[in-house]
Amino acid sequence: MEGITKIYPNGFMANKGVSLSVNEGEIHALIGENGAGKTTLMKILFGLESHQEGKIYINGAEAHIANPLDAIAKGVGMVHQHFMQVPNLTVAENIVLGMEPGRGPIFDAKEAIRITQEAVDKFNLDVEPNKLIRDLSVGQKQKVELLKSLVRGVKVLILDEPTAVLTPQETRELFVQLKHLRDQGYGIIFISHKLDEVMELCSRVTVLRHGKVTGHGEIKELNPAKLSKMMVEREVDLTIEKEAAKPEDTVIHVDHLNYVDDFGKLIVNDLSFGIRAGEVVGIAGVEGNGQTEVSEIISGLLSRTSGEIYLNGTETSGKSIAQIRDLGLSHISEDRMKFGIAGNLSIRDNILACYLRSGRFNKGQLLNMKKLNAFVDECIQNFEIACTGGSENIKFLSGGNIQKVIVAREFSGGANFIIANQPTRGIDVGTSDLIRRLLVKSTRENNSAVLLISSDLAEIMEVSDRLLVMKDGQIVAQFTNVKSVSDETLGEYMLGVKRMTPEEMGDLF
Q1: Strand residues in 292-371 grouped as ranges (E)
Q2: CA 296 to chain CA mean position, Å
């Protein structure tokens, strides 16, 4: 990619003169803050976006890429952060979707299985062709995404945050597979905010900031501190110095909680735990083991099947989301676009949303706009939100800045219980550091209780004072000395290889 410039209709310049080259047999890292232009650049390469200036060359010849099908035909594939799969179809059916074998309307299931098995064997990506997608682990779904691109003959693979939801064991397995593809001559573009992974896996790196290339080089000549400085214009200390937690009274008490989904599957299984004021309790687990449902049941987004939940001494059964929030709850949702914001409203309106009931910014029956605007400006400044002002539509912000708006709103409302579900997923190193420090600060200075759910093991082990592990809807381990736990040990509990007895876990309250 040579001199790529992309300007959106609203005048925002996402990429300015960006050049990027990837060789055969290379894993090349593309890193930068949220809003730096990484995703836009890759959308251009994959045919999802057009560009005003610059050229793309594939094998030395200029390529004009009209759409994703054209990109795949020219040898470029993309594995998105959120998997593009049909849960009720088999692995084989998902892999051949759009290129179904057979005559006319008759689908040749045997040929689909043969194509899939051949790719599984060739690329050493072990997954069962006849299994339904919904029955696979996250790591196996990742393999399906890779196979979908590889069976279509691509030679350049774009991987967007591929390890965001994987356990350490699954991440290591993925790295073995990516190195295998590299050794077969594939060019891989690896987008990640995990600098340790970049250091381990990649040979070269390109850094974007504000839509421009601000750094590039050989990985062997760099380290995480240098990379973070190239990304955010300052060195980021990736460790959090914190005083020992001094837990006080219980803020949230979950007692024998159960949840059965619409398919009759038991997702949360007789779960009991508590969190006290002054502590961060983390929940680690492979995605799909009930942790998201726990957060949504506590916050009122999902109705429990049975069990009791007490927030600041009040049972929450039958209460609306607004009533639960009034009891002292703030919620940073895993799905920020669906539950975290109103996409067609301004930054100001999104921050105002949780204050309408309290009347904090009311002037009689009207809003005190002067007071509200001053508060929004303060949030923008304190939380370092990159925007033109409070009246800007929130959907035009980068993912990281949208998350900052949500965090600013949820941390400024005076709640003493904060649920943070994947608060830094897909967020750059600088914004992640800000959010993690705020979580710790809220417990030490404001005596809040925090429930942190994260698939980033480095994050959950750095921030948590106490760590729970969930598997199949149950708590299978508790660690009170989080610093002493290795990634390997944690991964064994997450995968179900190990399980503590109730005596080993001790008091969960």
Answers
A1: 306-311, 314-315, 329-332, 362-363, 366-367
A2: 17
